[in-house]
Amino acid sequence: MPLNELEEEYEPPIWPAFGDLMACLFGLFVLFFVWTVMGQVVLDRDLARERASLAAVNTRVSTLESALAGPLASGLITLVDGRIGIRGALLFESNDAGLRREGKRLLEQLAPPLLTFLQQHDLVLMVSGYTDDQQLKGNGEYEDNWELSAQRALTVTRALTRAGIPPEALIAAGLGEHHPIVENDSEESRAKNRRVEIAPVPKPKSFSVRRSEQSEPKASGL
After folding, report:
1. Per DSSP, what are the bridge partners of residue 198?
2. Which pTM was predicted?
């Protein structure tokens, strides 16, 4: 029998190879399907966490707004995104960090509801001082706006402490003129930028230092 006739007679069937190919394709499809399902599960879980976190934030803001209803209604403070804003002119004289009498009364009024709020939530208060972009004039007590804003934040922080808020529940920060809320293009705008903000923030991670017992050095015996 000629060789070419033998090759045609014993030509291997293609169906087993086709079946293997289909099995591989099906396996890849299953892998992609499982990967897609797992990705959707992770996405749904993350979305649920974000919704829960947003709901908790909204609840805290509503609680804070209710607690500060009096000062808010009188216009002495503002509350935007959970941040309490106080005009600098209400708290301090120009280029000074000494607390005015009106400012002292306001902080004493704010302290009790803020303390209650902190007791209900695992948060602390960050007190931030801000100035406008005008440079300090003359040879004053403060070198620049940064130093002035930091001292004003410290003044408010200490006043809140004296009014009953624990020191460990307060953080002070001075940001100078570097974070305005409006353009410093008029006296009215600069007055808005001269402010102190009080905002609830997560507690910093605490740490403890364990001191090892120190023993007197022993004689080497040499």
Report:
1. 84, 127
2. 0.68
Tens-digit pLDDT string for the chain (222 aa): 554 554 555 555 665 666 666 777 777 777 777 777 777 777 667 666 666 555 555 666 777 888 888 888 889 999 998 899 999 999 999 889 999 999 999 999 999 999 999 988 889 999 999 999 998 876 678 899 999 999 999 999 999 999 999 999 999 999 999 999 999 999 999 999 999 999 999 988 765 444 444 444 544 443
Q: What is the DSSP string of 101-170?
A: HHHHHHHHHHHHHHHHHHHHSSEEEEEEEE--SPPPPSS-S-SSHHHHHHHHHHHHHHHHHHTT--GGGE
The CATH superfamily of 62-202 is OmpA-like domain (3.30.1330.60)
